[in-house]
Amino acid sequence: MFDIKSFYEARDVQDAVQALVKEPDAEIISGGTDVLIRIREGKDAGKALVSIHNIPELKGVRLLENGDLWIGAATSFSHITNDPLIQRLVPMLGEAVDMVGGPQIRNTGTIGGNICNGATSADSASTMWALDALILLSGPQGERTVPICEFYTGPGRTVREREEVCTGFIIRKENYEDWYGQYIKYGKRKAMEIATLGCAVRVKLSEDKRVIKDVRLGYGVAGPTPLRCRKAEEILKGAGVDDKEALEQFAKTALTEVNPRSSWRASREFRLQLIEELAKRALTESIRRAGGNCNA
After folding, report:
1. C-alpha–C-alpha distance, residues 99 and 197, integer Å
2. What distance in Å separates the CA atoms of residue 78 and residue 90, rounded to the nearest whole number?
3. What is the pTM (predicted TM-score) of this model?
4. How far apart are CA 68 and CA 50, in angstroms?
């Protein structure tokens, strides 16, 4: 049994917003893979739920007229992984969300819930940081767009107001075109595991594939929120793909920009080792996917 005050199925986004305003303790539910667990554990017991699960406008992936990629907040992980546009333009995101839970969770859980829960361990979060994603919110005061780098305010906390509905995400054309990357998740098990650490790297190479024009490095569980290591990124801009010294400096600089904690899953010291090692591994694979030869 779940201790739920009431359950309302919203017809559209504005209907959901109005329902949230009407019920001061109401919470959004879509896939429910996190919300229902919190209710069962007693953390959110007795709350009213407003479901956005069956709102068509919140689902799917499409290319906008200006070339930007739009992903609906209520789109399931499985849909994202198997979507042709994701596979062609940002396969790294599809790979990242394919590491969430098991098949049942991936068929039900949504990317909107994964991001809006504010968890640093969310498998989509570090990749969305590396993609410089924009988050679309709709509330009583209208619509607003928040860069993902401004979205998280602390562990499990974001700038989204309770009455706001996350409607989708935008990945700008310049943030996926000619970019290649990899997400590496470290956990004690290969499946059904919350990340001990997540590392996302994306690179853009020169036309001859010998120089790193740009790079992005994102982490999950390397701090209280997902983060980007911008100082480390600057180290590699303009470096050769086979510059081993720059690669080492890139990984070591990342250590100065993170703040992992010890938990029952791993110590701070072990996470620092992972941060350095996974940066190198993900970068090497990203360069390979971009057509570069970092072993030259």
Report:
1. 13
2. 15
3. 0.93
4. 30
